[in-house]
Amino acid sequence: MTRGAPFLLALLLLLGDCTIPGFRLIDQQTFARTPAPTSTDVARADLPPQPLVVIRFGNLDQDYGPALAEAVNDATTRKPDVAFDVLTPVPTSATLEVQDRFTRQGIIDAQDVANALVMYGVSPDQVHMGFRADAGTPPREVLVFAR
Fold this sequence. Notes:
This protein is of the alpha+beta class. The chain has three helices and four strands. The termini are far apart.
């Protein structure tokens, strides 16, 4: 093999999503403290176009509880077996450090909202948490979708 062959092989494996049995590629995410969102964590394609509730955490004095409780009540009245997706945006065009910061804070924020949903009577198996890719610079928020 020539000197550039290992690089070319690694590039082909990355682009082709291929693996060699017994080997795995190592990249910056291998050593990251917080795991990057996986494809199963990212928002599902079957979500409605608009979220049921958008909770912005920019103003911590504002209580989102009453609005969330009302939205949950309306959704469960219309569809008793409704499932809720609690998603936080992660900026895909940002550096890994910024993505990591959004991911860590998003987990905390989404867990708070998921706990509130359960407190309002939603079964824990009807609540799904994840991330939503955002090409821009999203605010600190949680999106709640009903499906």
